[in-house]
Predict the structure.
Amino acid sequence: MTKPLSELTTIRVGGTPASLTEVFTRDAVIEETQRIWASGEEWFVLGGGSNVVIADDISTLQVIRVANKGIEKTGHGAIRVQAGENWDDLVRYTVEHHLGGLESLSGIPGTVGAAPVQNIGAYGAELADTFVRCEFLDYLTGEVEIIEKADCGFAYRDSIFKRGKVGVITWVELQLLADLPAGSGELLKRRRDEVLDLRASKGMVLAEHDLDTHSCGSFFTNPIVTSTFARTLPEEAPRWDVDEDGDRVKLSAAWLIEHAGISKGLALGASKAAISSKHALAITNRGGATAAQIGELARFIQERVAATFGINLVPEPNFIGF
Ligand SMILES: Cc1cc2nc3c(=O)[nH]c(=O)nc-3n(C[C@H](O)[C@H](O)[C@H](O)COP(=O)(O)OP(=O)(O)OC[C@H]3O[C@@H](n4cnc5c(N)ncnc54)[C@H](O)[C@@H]3O)c2cc1C
């Protein structure tokens, strides 16, 4: 089976691969992936398609779409979640079952198996806060292994899975807060609703009718620079200390973009790729944009920010087939 990946990615770009294999159980994830690896062809693992920009021509690529679902209790507040489970369905489940820890990560699109890849995070929380271990099929060894949190190299929007540990995550185990005091269920629900409302106001919750959500979310990570460099920026540029001694500070990529003279809604010429009308950090597809147009706008933003502030913005999504 195959079809254009623009139908399976939230930014709605991506050509038709040589093959598209959807896998619905943990064993099928392993068997089908090993079969494709044995073929020696180029391959790629797709989850919910919310953090990838896939090229217009990927005609030689074999794509494995991870779709195994299931949430299983493994201990007190401990759960094992299959990689193809929808992330936000998992958050809803934990809130409904009065398990604390994921509520601030409500509304992030995509699958559970992709969450460790960039250590998803929002509003002061990140996956690493509750992650315990995952099962991983390693491309180098062909073996299945269990990887503990300490070995995942989690950092801001980063992990070993983004830095060369190639393979497929089949399930993830999390430790959540159980035995919360009476009334906490309502607090978890309120926090979830608050986060969903805030995210929706920025176009950060997927909605078919809202073109501002046809994106990969934030297109660039917030740059981390030395405090010495940060002092060269205008005083009003937002910044947050990253370490206790204040040597490294995190800047706001959205602020840098807007203050490099790039406004919300900007598109280059007749291109259908445009900056979101709600958030300067999201590149959106206004209908029929190509991957090349998305890439062109991303480069334009990078060049403007580099020329204005001397900072190279690093894209957050994964570019495939470019
Ligand atoms: C509107 C919007 C808002 C967003 N908001 C946030 C946010 O607040 N915080 C945040 O951190 N991210 C955010 N994102 C980015 C995205 O939702 C996350 O990165 C998410 O974890 C991607 O999941 P996915 O299943 O869609 O991954 P995909 O886009 O399908 O894949 C992303 C990467 O993970 C790899 N991958 C996928 N599944 C597996 C697997 N099982 N094993 C190994 N590798 C795998 C892929 O090969 C690819 O390299 C947002 C995106 C959108 C569109």
Residues 291-309 form the longest helix (19 residues). The chain is about 20% helix and 20% strand. The pocket of flavin-adenine dinucleotide is lined by residues 10, 44-52, 66, 83, 108-111, 113-115, 117-118, 120-122, 161, 168-169, 204, 206, 213, 215-217, 318 (CB under 6 Å). The chain has three domains: 5-66, 71-198, 211-320.
